[in-house]
Amino acid sequence: MSRVGLLPIAIPRDTEVKVNGSEVVAKGSKGELSRRFHPAISIALKDGCLIVTRPSDSRVHRSLHGLTRSLLANMVTGVSKGFEKSLEINGVGYRAQKTGDKLLLQVGYANTVEFSTPPGISISVEGANRIHVTGIDKQLVGETAAKIRAIRPPDSYKGKGIKYEGERLRLKPGKSGKIGKK
Prior knowledge:
This protein is an alpha+beta fold. The chain has three helices and 13 strands, in the order H-E-E-E-E-E-E-H-E-E-E-E-E-E-H-E. It has helices spanning 3-6, 59-80, 138-151; strands spanning 9-10, 16-20, 23-27, 32-36, 42-46, 49-53, 83-90, 95-99, 102-106, 113-116, 121-126, 130-135, 161-164. It starts with a helix and ends in an 18-residue tail after the last strand.
């Protein structure tokens, strides 16, 4: 049995969820999300909770059961609380700046890198070396943060670059010099 799929999803008071067959629409204080799920998995709204059930114990239905429940829980959390990913910039002269809907990054390249914000995502810069990516769609927030990080991933020798907040880097020792040579 799927342990994740069996858990009911509690709906907060300020959130409204409508189920139309395999399509679910969630509205909350942060915004609105809609998604169409696999028709084999049934979604029911009972006593202020969403319950996901599957028709059989086949491998495909078991995997869809947990996936559907996780996606629904992320939708409900997104429209009620939202999601946030934070990034840190490390390096001498490396900095970020927000201008309009664009993020300007100076991360060791000859030119400043411009990153345009996708719709539904808001980016804020704290100081010169912290970037906060927020939105209601968990997948889009994570994808946007990964694209920003990919502009200059952390160097494995000095640690310079853009990394997630709290990400631990394992730095390589580098060259130890010529030993034993006369």
